[in-house]
TrEMBL record:
Pfam families: DUF488. It comes from the Bacteria. InterPro entries: DUF488, UCP024492. This is DUF488 family protein.
Length: 152
């Protein structure tokens, strides 16, 4: 079993091929979609197309919607209220579904697979995926690498 590794990536300002290339370069084995709604108007980023795209690269796909930001948190993020988004997401992470799916994610990372969290925002400091990564790190010692695909 290899040492655990955790990555994050956002697809804002990037094409699907650029994101897939970045995942492949990093040796990601499992892409965990942490969007509450795994749909996108951006080509290649809706759940089924994304799962098919990563599968072509030998990468598995898992959608953990319980680790996504609730609608009011997404609205706060869109309006630049990152503090409000973080507060709303912290409250959400106390729900049974979120706690259960965080445990599932921790187990996947512990297994030694190279796991990458995916969401929309390009910069992790503006995205809840950084909070999710930090919550994983509270439970297991794992380095986190924030990937960034080439912009459009």
């Amino acid at each position: 079993m290899s040492a655990p590794a955790l990555f994050t990536i956002g697809y804002e300002q990037a094409s699907a091929p650029a994101v897939l290339d970045e995942l492949s370069r990093a040796g990601v084995e499992l892409l965990v979609d942490v969007r509450a709604v795994a749909a996108s108007r951006r080509a290649g980023f809706s759940k089924s197309l994304l799962a098919a795209g990563v599968a072509e690269r030998g990468i598995s796909y898992l959608h953990l919607r319980g680790l996504g930001t609730p609608a009011e948190g997404r609205q706060a993020a869109r309006s630049g209220q990152h503090g409000a988004m973080q507060r709303i997401f912290a409250e959400h992470m106390q729900t049974p579904t979120a706690r259960e799916q965080l445990g599932e994610l921790v187990d996947l990372v512990k297994s030694g697979r190279r796991v990458c969290l995916l969401c929309f925002e390009r910069h992790p400091e503006h995205c809840h995926r950084l909070i999710v990564a930090n919550l994983v790190c509270e439970q297991i010692e794992v380095p986190v690498t924030h990937l960034m695909a080439s912009p459009l």
